[in-house]
Write a structure and sequence with these properties.
This protein folds into 2 domains: about 1-100, Orthogonal Bundle (Rna Polymerase Sigma Factor, Chain: A), CATH 1.10.1740; about 100-188, Arc Repressor Mutant, subunit A, CATH 1.10.10.10. Helix 2 crosses helix 4. The longest helix is centred in the first third of the chain and has 24 residues, at about 25-45. It is an all-alpha fold. The chain has helices at about 5-20, 25-45, 50-65, 75-100, 105-120, 125-135, 140-150, 155-160, 165-185. The model is unreliable at about 100-110 and about 115-120 (pLDDT under 50).
C-alpha cells in the first residue's frame, strides 16, 4: 500500500468517525493523533520557538474543531490542515511583530540562540540551516518548509498558499539560493 493510499484510507476513517455525533470525539482525536506531529514541525519551522509552536498548534486545532463540519473535501484533509496551520503561524508572527520593536536581525539572533541552547550536540551545518530558514521572509520560509521538509507536491502547496505553481517554483528556488548563500558565507 502506498503512502497516498494509506493517507486516503486514514482520511476516510477519520471522516467516517466524524460523521456521527456518537463517534465524533473519537474521530477528532484520531485526526489530532494522525497530523499533530507533522503540523508541529511545519509550524515550528515557521515560528521557531517551541512555546510559540504549541500555542499556534493549539489555535490550529481549535479552528479545525470549529470548522471540520464545514469541510467540503475539495482538497485533501492534510492540505486543509496545513493551510490553517500556515495561516495561524503567519497570524502569530504578525502579532509578534506588532508587539516587539526589535529588528528582524535581533529576532533571528534570539531564535538562533534558542536553537543552539536546545540542541548543544547538533552539528554546525544543521544550526546554520535552521538560522538560514529563520532568516527567510515568511512566504519563502513557508514554501521552503512545505516543499523541502514535508515533501509536499507543488500543486498542494499552491492550494495552501494561494500561489501559482510557477510562482511557487520560483519562490522555492530563491529561498534555496538564499539558504545556500547564508550557509556558505558563515561556514568559511
Amino acid at each position: 500500500m502506498t503512502e497516498n493510499q494509506f493517507n486516503d484510507e486514514q482520511e476516510r476513517q477519520i471522516f467516517t468517525l466524524l460523521a456521527t455525533e456518537a463517534t465524533f470525539d473519537r474521530g477528532f482525536s484520531l485526526l489530532v493523533l494522525t497530523y499533530q506531529e507533522r503540523l508541529y514541525w511545519h509550524v515550528r519551522g515557521m515560528v521557531g520557538q517551541h512555546d510559540d509552536t504549541d500555542e499556534v498548534l493549539q489555535n490550529t486545532f481549535i479552528k479545525v474543531f470549529k470548522g471540520i463540519k464545514n469541510f467540503q473535501g475539495n482538497s485533501k484533509l492534510y492540505t486543509w490542515l496545513y493551510k490553517i496551520a500556515s495561516n495561524e503561524s503567519i497570524t502569530h508572527l504578525n502579532k509578534i511583530k506588532k508587539i516587539r520593536t526589535d529588528s528582524i536581525e535581533d529576532n533571528i539572533i534570539v531564535y538562533s540562540n534558542q536553537f543552539a541552547d536546545e540542541s548543544p550536540d547538533s552539528e554546525l551545518l544543521q544550526k546554520l540551516l535552521e538560522k538560514a530558514i529563520l532568516a527567510l521572509p515568511e512566504k519563502q520560509r513557508q514554501i521552503f518548509l512545505l516543499r523541502y521538509y514535508d515533501e509536499m507536491p507543488y500543486q498542494e502547496i499552491a492550494e495552501i498558499t494561494g500561489t501559482s505553481v510557477g510562482g511557487l517554483k520560483a519562490t522555492y528556488h530563491i529561498a534555496a539560493k538564499k539558504i545556500e548563500t547564508y550557509i556558505l558565507e558563515r561556514n568559511l
